[in-house]
Amino acid sequence: MALKTEAVGKSWPSFDYEVGKEKIAEYCRVLGIKDPVHFDRKAANKADFRDVVAPPMFCVVYSAGSLGPAIFDPEVEMNFAAMVHGGQEFEWGVPVCSGDVITTTPKCTEIYEKDGKGFYVFETESVNQEGDSVVRGVWTNIVRGV
Amino acid sequence: MADPRPGEKIASFKVTPDKYLPHRYAGASGDFNPIHIDPEFAKMVGLPGSILHGLYVMGLVAKTAVDSVAPGDPGSLRKLSVQFRGMSFPEQEIEVSGNVTEIDGEQVSIDMVAVQGENQVIRNATAQVKLAGD
Q: Is A39 on the interface with B (CB under 8 A)?
């Protein structure tokens, strides 16, 4: 069965997320990240961050929500029951601190078939309230048996 | 790692996530997919039990890259790309390791992998980390 590729190039509405100090702390506790710059305002200021700073992979917390409408879009027609997260790439810009409002815009960049599997590739661009890029993500979902 | 060189191994990191780790990661990340937090649901869809979130394991890879090259500098990680392969499970040890492949100015490239027993959970991971101390 040929995959539908109409959604390639499509973007979805931007998604805003306001970063909070306790959310950064919660994420860090789960990952076993202990550096005080993630918990303590004074330690963060001393290291030249304007507030407690998020670790890089906190980007999933503020950006993943943008992808809901994209992956559930009927035009994308992705079969969730057979979907696995195949690959992930992030490229970071300026650090994200507590109090930042991060705006993420998702886009479908590729849909293709390889070895009987469907590859659905989405990109997210996240910027802070100053318009500075904080992270760019490439999310590859693989659907078996297309 | 004050002066990393190509071919050098970075300090590896080992952790055994406890039974409830996927619940806490679900809360922290907002990803409540039941395959991670409901063993009965996981079995119903053909998995041996609840599996860890791939992005949690990628978080461990990121932490290991930062801690090994520029500890205390979360802005040092510039880029990380991974492929998710086998599933991983709570209550079994995960080990993250890596080899320095290239130094370009103050940028260090590291090939990384996360394994659980015989199983490569994350492979073909490459991290680019900026050296501390500028």
A: no
SS3 B99: strand
Task: Tell me which CATH homologous superfamily contains domain B13-130.
Answer: Hotdog Thioesterase (3.10.129.10)
First to last CA, chain B: 15
What is the side-by-side strand order in the sheet with A101-114? Answer: A15-18, A101-114, A117-127, A133-143, A83-92, B77-84, B119-130, B107-116, B94-104, B13-15
Domain formed by A15-143, architecture: Roll (3.10)
Instruction: Report the gap between the CA of B127 and the closest CA in chain A (Å).
Output: 10
Q: Which ipTM was obtained for this model?
A: 0.95
User: Which of B129, B125, B126 lies closest to B83 in space, CA to CA?
Assistant: B125
Asked whether the beta carbons of residue A56 and residue B74 sit closer than 8 angstroms, the reply is yes
Of B29, B60, B79, the CB nearest to A60: B29
Task: Kindly state the average pLDDT of the residues A78-107.
Answer: 94
**Best mutation site among A88, A97, A139 for testing chain B: the one with the most B CBs within 10 Å?**
A88
For residues B25-36, give the mean pLDDT: 95
